[in-house]
Amino acid sequence: MAFIDGNVVRILMKDFLTFDDMEVHPKPHLNVIIGPNGTGKSTIMCGLALALSQKPAITGRAKEVSEYVKHGKETATIEVEIYRGQTKKSNLVVKRVITRTNTSQFYLQGEKASYKEVESSLKKLRIQLDNLCQFLPQDRVVEFAKMNNVQLLENTEKTVGGESLYEQHEAVRNSGGAVQQLRIRVQQIQTQFQAELGKNASVEAEVRNHDVRKGLETEIKELQTRRLWFLYTQQRTQHLSLKKNKEKLMAELNALKERWQPEAEQIENFQTAVDTVRNRIKIEERVVSNIGAESSGLESRWSEFEEQRQDALREYQRKEEMHRQQQQTLQDLHKQLSATKTEIEQHCSKMKQDDDSAQQRVISELTSEVQTIGTNLTGLQNTLHSTRNQHNNQLLEIKQITDQLNRMQDTNRQRMQLLQQRYGDAYRAAMWLQKNSDRFKNTVHPPICTLLNVPNPVYAQYVEDRIPRADLIAFVCRDKDDVNLLKQLMDEQNWAVNIVHSASDSVAEFKPSRSVQDVRRLGFEMYLLDAVEGPGAVLNYLCKTYALHNIPVATKDTVNVQRVPSNFPRFYIGDSRYHHSRSRYTSDIMTNLSFVQKPMLLTVTEQTQRLTALQQQHSQLSQHASETEKSCQQLHNKEGELLILLEEKRKLKQQMLQQRNLRKTLQSRLEQKEAQIVRAEKDAVDIDEADKVKEHKMKAATRSSMDVIKGWSELAQRQSSVKHNLTALRSKFKCLGDTITELTTAMQEMEQRVTEKREEVAEAVQQVKETVRAGQETLAELLLSLGLSSASQINDAVRGTFNDGVQGLEPTEQKLTELEAHRDCLVTADAQVVEEFNRRKKHIENLQLQLDRVKEEEERCTSSMAEQRAEWLKNVATLTSTINQSFSKLMARMKCAGEVKLSKPENEDELSKYGLSICVRFRGSERLRELTAQQQSGGERAVSTALYLLALQTLSAVPFRCADEINQGMDAENERQMFTMLVEHMTDINASQYFLITPKLLPNLPYNDRVNFICVFNGPKISCQISLKDVFKRKAQLAKAAKAR
């Protein structure tokens, strides 16, 4: 067995994905890489791909190279040795070092190299890892079926047609593209040619009118010059006339000003006299104002003195009323004093008849009885208060227990709320079932999660982990007919629910493999069935389906895993789930460890024992509270009786004390009345003295008022004199004002006439200026039109030119208007349009030449493309026929039918749409259908893909091929046939190297010496170096850490 150039001789990987250090030596023909799932078979292909390709996407896995570095390492190394002994003395060694920072470095023969250098070396050996027909990793198997016809043709050409066929295809496709571009260019030039012709045709008439317009413009310009000459002559004559009128108006204005001056001086003199009188009037008005202020001050003083007189009178009246009230009070006090003396005398005569000692004895007895009753009442009230507190505490405790019972008995509602939040269809179906349960033959239980009760919440996570989510929300029917009916009703409502059947409601038939005592000796606490409560039918279904009766549970890490017998395939310890399974290859027992998630549906539990205890406690407390309430009522009644008796004794004692203390009371009242009479006589008002004070104050106020009245009289005389002067001044001011008004009116009329004359003068001046400006502008235009620089250059010769032809301004303007109207009626093109017309005319000529040249080039390229296409179609048809024959034979051996054909587009010139179609048929009743990712099943696609790759092997132009688990999804018969054919073809002496990765091999498959098996698995002695207990413990720690994150 000899290698050929491009075969893989050695693959070395260090710290790559799951491998610490791995080296494999393939053989030159069929290399079958086998091993259990997860051991790293596909990792070998990933390493080969990353060593020979720069793009991680080729593996179909991670997109960044840093993700291929083993966890906890900083770099990963891949080294691939490729045979090239037929052409060179040494093999090609490609190495790639990948870092955690997402960088990498390629090496060739141990020296640093760029990927372009690596790619160039691989290309010489015909290695194409981006071609799915050569390299098909596990994660890209489905992409093979997703390739369209064009991609399949290209990859097939690269794989078995060699570089020449694919390059020929590319050349034909490029030629077709060039022809299409030339045809598009011809169409573009023709479109542009017709557009330019149309544009010139649309403006041709306007361009002709442009020349006519030029002649009219010249004639109009001459008439405009004649018009300026006649206009200037007219404006000059008008200027001389307006100048004479202006001088006449100026003379009339000066005459009016001479008449206006004397009247203005007279008005100014009268205005001075008016200002003098106005100032005197202001002075007199201030004097009147001052007199008014003094009068107001005197009036205020007089009011003040009058108020003093009234205050004195009111003070006397107040004291007079006080004196009268004091006299009345003294009379009343004397009467009360007389009555008190009489009452004392009557009481003294009566008291002599009674025995003082007997009265005192009765009072003492009553006092003793009151004290005894009070003591008994206090004791009774303390007892009543204590009893009431006890009763209140009992009622409070009963309420707390009642609340706890309500909460614990409300678990069903809480479970339904949890179901509603997470699974709406199951909740709606459960609510529907509550109202329609009578429609079924036997009991239909609502979702299992609403029925199961885990008294100890610690075990809820194990129960929920063991029972799949689909069964936790499933309905349980006792009758099979009810299963079908419920499914039909749920489908009508469009509710997605799960329904299971459980005929028995007993779990007695399910026995654990070992007794509870035995599993407790191992460190377990109970079986999972012992931790859960629920209807018998539900528990029967769970035991039958998930063996809850044979799954031991330990909430703490107290179990030695290695001592757990193998007849417990599943058990729980702490937060971990352990699963025992037997290897199909070695028959050894394997243990899988998984982390147990916290419960999501069984979080609401019902504690039965606690509920019973609380109900008993509630009953006992209610009985005690009733007895305490009766005791409180009896004590309350007795308290009322004692209060009544105590009140009677107190009233009797009070009456006795009042009789004994009446004399003292009367004597004290007599002394009080005598003291009040003495105080009243002492505080009495002296009415005579008050009258003298009143008379004195009133006389003083009257004298001050008389002084104020005298000052008032003097102010009135002064005010009368000032007002008389003020009246005379105001009369004189009015006369002067009337005179000024008359003069002002006359003056305003004169000013109006002067203003009007000034406006006439200003208007005349403005007209003169306007004629001067207009004449200058007209002269400037005339000089510009004549080509002269100053008016002095206008000589007789120039004037003579205007004597011929049309004479006068109006005839000239009329003729000018006619010519301008003729010019404006012409539809002409502007200068830019004329320029564009001429430019397009030249462009049209150039386009005609360019069109002839491109058409000639198109005909030449079309002829060349036709020759290339014919040659390529011949070669690709031959290749397709060969592949079809091989593929059809292989499919026939699988008792199926297959065909490979070249698909052509409707337009044969669209060379980019040529493709390769794979059509297959797996059943005799079907027709051939194209292989796609949708039309065939996964197993059918796998068979088709494998046989197509096998068909290509006979035409192989590549040094090696890789296929990762293409037998996945095949049934045993197809897999056996496929492997048999693979061995036949791949072990041919001329076949290329082949890598087949599979997790399993059927028994009794045919092999020969050219088949090389590479088993990826730990060796038989590796278990001696590893502690399974440490592995399980470490895995549990990692699971907890992941959960904490």
Write structural notes for this entry.
The protein has 1045 residues and is of the alpha/beta class. Among the domains are: 1-130 and 1010-1045, Rossmann fold; 357-406 and 613-682; 420-434 and 442-606, no CATH class. 63% of the residues lie in helices and 10% in strands. The chain contains 21 helices and 22 strands. A 6-stranded antiparallel beta sheet has the order 2-1-4-5-6-7, covered by helices on one side. Strand 18 and strand 19 form a beta hairpin. The chain is flat, with a radius of gyration of 66 Å. The model has no long low-confidence stretch (mean pLDDT 78). GO terms for molecular function: single-stranded DNA binding.
Briefly summarize what is shown.
The chain is an alpha/beta fold. The protein contains 21 helices and 22 strands.
Keywords:
about 1050 residues, six-stranded antiparallel beta sheet, five-stranded parallel beta sheet, alpha/beta, single chain, flat, Rossmann fold
Helix/strand layout:
Elements (H helix, E strand, L loop, with lengths): L7 E9 L2 E6 L5 E5 L6 H12 L22 E8 L9 E8 L4 E5 L2 E3 L1 H10 L10 E2 L4 H6 L2 H12 L1 H190 L4 H54 L1 H12 L1 H13 L7 E2 L14 H7 L2 H4 L2 E3 L2 H14 L5 E3 L14 H6 L4 E2 L8 H11 L5 E3 L15 E4 L2 E7 L6 E7 L12 H75 L4 H100 L9 H6 L7 H17 L5 H63 L3 E7 L11 E7 L7 E2 L7 H16 L6 E5 L7 H15 L6 E6 L12 E5 L12 H17 L1
Parallel strand pairs: 3-21, 3-22, 8-20, 10-11, 13-14, 20-21
Antiparallel strand pairs: 1-2, 1-4, 4-5, 5-6, 6-7, 9-10, 12-13, 14-15, 15-16, 17-18, 18-19
Helix pairs in contact: 4-5, 5-14, 5-15, 5-17, 5-18, 6-14, 7-8, 18-19, 19-20
